[in-house]
Amino acid sequence: MTAARLTDPVAAELIKLRTLPALWIALAVAVTANTALGAIAATDVIRLAGDGGPTGIEGAGALMLAPVYAYLAIAVFAAGTEYRNGQLRLSLAAVPGRARFLAAKLLAILVVSLLAAVPVLIPNLVLRGDLGDLGRYLAAYLLLALTGYGFAFAARTVVTPIAVLAAVPILVSTTLGGLWPTVVRVLPHEAALSLVGMPADPATALSPAAGLLVLTGWATVSVTIGGVLVARRDV
Amino acid sequence: MIEFKGVTKRYGAKTAVDAVTFAVRPGRVTGFLGPNGAGKSTSLRVLLGLDHATSGEALIAGKRYRDLTFPLRTVGALLDGAGPVPDRRGADHLAWIARSNRIPRSRVGEVLEAVGLTDAARQRTGRYSLGMRQRLGIATALLGDPEVLILDEPVNGLDPDGIRWIRSFLRGYAGRGRTVLLSSHLMTEMADTADDVVVIANGRIVADGALADITEGHPSLEDAFFALTGAASKQVWS
């Protein structure tokens, strides 16, 4: 019998992703929102009230980064839907080597996330004239997506990772940013803002390199914990 | 050939299956019979490597399931609590499973036709009835044209036509020298389909043999079941 290759489960995972409508909806929301924000920032048609008078939305890092939460839903759906209706049992019956299954799934989601990043990021950056920052935006988007991906495997649901990752910057960062800036600056959202050079507050700012390091740490820990749990759990 | 060799599975303090040992031979339909919660599904999940055995091992053709190169080409399984994501179309559901084991895409249409779902192939599975979902599960099991078929409660949700179809299909499948393990809590259904019967109650095998031997001296398989399992199983059934 022909030896099993990783390309077989990777191709299967790509079919899974391609045939999931929620994924296309998340992509459409991310593309539309990010392109609209890019257009608004470029034309300055909407300005936000600030202490020193109205400012362009480009200065509002949290707002500019908001579409990432629709984008990371793609990776979260990829992992979280395995627990919908017991699909994981079918996945592991098809690919019983759990390390092989996890490697294939991770590769597939990396490919899809990279492809999805093109329409999500490039129009926004072109409109804002910031295409030179593509590398750090791509890193921030991919690493946040991987953080959500591992979280979804650990939580065994789609809802919790998206809710937690999106709520933390709204609830925790705004309320605790002034009290515990050293803690808040290493949260995924703040690290991502630092990485793309738009920290919400100087008190919670990291250098872009430190932001990259912290965000890489979150993604690594999340994917590792999610993977270990899938490998060890009964399904 | 399927072999369970002293398989024990504990979840914390609860022992779900206890030293389960039996063999399933090719060319016969073997019924795996027991009440809900007796340990049937757990045993099958251990066999397919989905749950880790606390001790013992379960083998298919002398190998652990996870050591099979393209497992779906050897073993087809319909498992309880393992279904398609409702947003995905039936044909797409089968397509990813086929691709994972390098099964030709043409098999998707063939198995959909075999279970009578050709017209529903492009429908999202969330719109399927219970019977249609069950048929899709059977189609999934047949995808790799496997030598071994493991079906957990296959008649659940099937209409009378579907039940008759699965019964004659399984008889034909085993008649071609293939191995069929059929789990059910429906004793009448089992009596009409199985050649051999393995009875499990409270996680332990209480009877294992040819249907005729198990039912000998009893008016029905159901009577044999209660006679064999005694008070312990009556407690489970009640």
From TrEMBL, chain A:
The keyword Transmembrane helix applies. The chain crosses the membrane at residues 21-42, 62-81, 102-122, 134-155, 162-183, 203-231. Keywords: Membrane, Transmembrane, Transmembrane helix. This is ABC transporter permease. It comes from Actinoplanes couchii.
